[in-house]
Amino acid sequence: MLPLAIIIVLVVSAILIVIAKNNILAKAMTLIALGVGFVISIAIVSATSDGGAITWAVGVAPWNISLSVGPLEAFMACLFTGIGFLIMWASTTMIDHDVERKKVPLYYTLICSLIAMLCGVVFFDNLINVFIFIELSSIAAACIVIIKNQPENIRAGLKYLTLSILGSGFVLMGIVVFYTITGSLTMSGIHAGLLGSFDANKSSVLYASIFIIIGVAFKSALFPMHIWLPDAHGTAPSPSSATLSSLVLKAYVVFFIKILYVVIGHGILSHDPALSMLLQIILFFGAVAMLAGSVMAILQTDIKRMIAYSSVAQIGYIFMGIGLANQLGLHAAIFHIMAHAVTKAGLFLVAGSIIEQTHNRRLDKMDGLGIQMPVTMLFFTIGALSMVGIPMFIGFNSKWNFAMSIMDSGQFWVMVVLVISSLLNALYYLPVVIRSFFGEEARKKAENRESLERSVGGLLPIGVLSCCVILFAVFNSAFASFFRMVVESIW
Q1: Which whole number is the average pLDDT over 14-33?
Q2: Would you say residue 256 lies in a domain?
Q3: Of 95, 114, 163, 248, which residue is the least packed, with the fewest Cβ within 10 Å?
């Protein structure tokens, strides 16, 4: 079973890293495990390219272990292992700056475990299995924040863990309601049960959906349940921030998409007024998050907190696409999962490089930094232009998709929100770019010629992410057809 192979490789690597307790070996084994996982993920994409699914089950229902991996899950496996590989590659030259040397093997054990658990969240079909992986991933995610062992990290990690557990409680309540209605715990089994009993259980399905929405909102940092995110992302080691923003949040969003379109199903969603209204509420909160996250990002003075609040806005984009309740909206949301993952991973790694090389986090002290760190700030500029939505960068393709889905839905007020959000993105990203390359301070630093640039080895993985931001935009048509197939497989 290819999907299980990814989880097994990562878990075995985590165990071996703990046993070996060697920093160099820990880094190498993590990269090997993620590289092997990525190759297997590509094989899964190929195996499910016709829209079919790889299924496996053992045990007696409803408490069996079962998984179902189709195009959506295969795509997420590629994202987890591929982006995870690049982040961990960058971490090999960064992690010693944030984590005590004796804790480095523990850090990579947590990373391998975390990505294995994220794969479990999207792979497994039995909701109890999924819930277990959600809980384990939350614990591992909190630990990669706390491991820095500073008071602010411990507070941020515990805050994240507390709110994440609260969110898990809501998710579990939703699962219990679905089980009570249908007597099944598998996504396909619950859907089959709902087809025959929905009219008699409309209110229960609505309550279950509300519980899961609240739980996922806490875990994926949808405004206003985002309060843990700025502290966790802002204080964590930079590779952890990149992993949390680009990968961890997305697993819970995909779980939510599967609850809507695999468990409940488009047919029920589109014909029940209460559930349709619930999607409108999701759309509203997504739109509010797009604006609120951007406004809060503008107010920040710390570069990592600015990027963290930007993630709040970007999660809003994804929920906005889901809330539009049409195929183009779901296509835009899933595409944005990739666009945000690639772009935000690069931005957090650039922020970590700046902090490591300059020992400064304040945005008002980064004037002229493009002269001292030209390559690093070029990568930041690429990420910033993508977030703003400039053509030739993947963020533009993503916002184009959202614009098309809004037009298709006929809810033109959302277009106004999309435009305002893009303008707000420009207000906090572009000034950093402009001040780093131009102005009086830049001229002074140009005369001094002091270089703070990282080594080629340290810059290379960030450069690969930056290239992906451009290449994925240029070859967007290939990805667009793939994501259309992904949407059709669950619609």
Answers
A1: 92
A2: no
A3: 163
